[in-house]
Amino acid sequence: xxxxxxxxxxxxxxxxxxxxxxxxxLDIALEALVETTxxxxxxxxxxxxxxxxxxxxxxxxxxxxxxxxxARLHLPLGVARVIIADLAAEGLVAxxxxxxxxxxxxxxxxxxxxxLSGLRxx
Amino acid sequence: MDFDGSERMTGPAPARVTAAKIVIAxxxxxxxxxxxxxxxxxxxxxxxxxxxxxxxxxxxxxxxPGKTTTTVAMDFGRISIDRDLIxxxxxxxxxxxxxxxxxxxxxxxxxAVVLVDTRRLADCFAAIDFFExxxxxxxxxxxxxHKVQYHDVEDVREALAIAPEIPIITCDAxxxxxxxxxxxxxxxxxxxxxxxxxxxxx
Lengths: 122, 202
Fold this sequence. Notes:
Chain A has 122 residues and is mainly alpha-helical. Chain A is built from 5 helices and 3 strands.
């Protein structure tokens, strides 16, 4: 019955890679964009798990949202969020939070106009 | 691994990099993922969130505490508007009982598209209730399978009991140009609402 004690792949408990932590150090929106920093490029392999290194590689020179990172690495959203927040705290990735559309300020209106003209150009 | 999709950027990204999102809602099988896929630059991806027993609140946790997690899946796509701005389209989870995920989906969203099959109109009632309750702007897009529209637009408005200013349009979720037009109509509507509020504050 030894195999019952050796779960593999998707059977690994989801929060094992975060050492059981479920709360991220930083609230990261689903669509927040993650980008590997210069420090991340050189410091990726120092004392980090496989998932940390995969995220650093995935976001190197290519903006990826939290949702994309979780989907591409087959990690539950909450797990990806904890790892990305850790990487951001160490300066290995930058997290670009979405622009707030609350209220009617010019920043939100400008963003909507950019989205609109971008959609028309598609 | 092959991460196809957007092109690699050259050089560091400028300071004001940001993302936006639009929520695509509607009943099961109405064509949400088809709509996302028709205009997305990547094959729609699926992201999963794990809900613990604390979030469910109804399951019996006394006997097997480890068994009370539920996985909620959402499909989404991506459109690079320009180098610094990426638009995501998120499909809502199939079952409306996963409201905790809807809260996260609508937070900061531009607005929502409620995709409707007029043969199963009631499937979208919960989504419309939710968006109205949260004050999220939305429009209704009637997905016309095989170009067949079973009901008049104003009949649909009456059946859904929604205000006259909320746009109702027809579309073909499989068609890129049609989907583009749905998204353009939504953003135009949201901009118009903002301008009206700025001109005549309540």
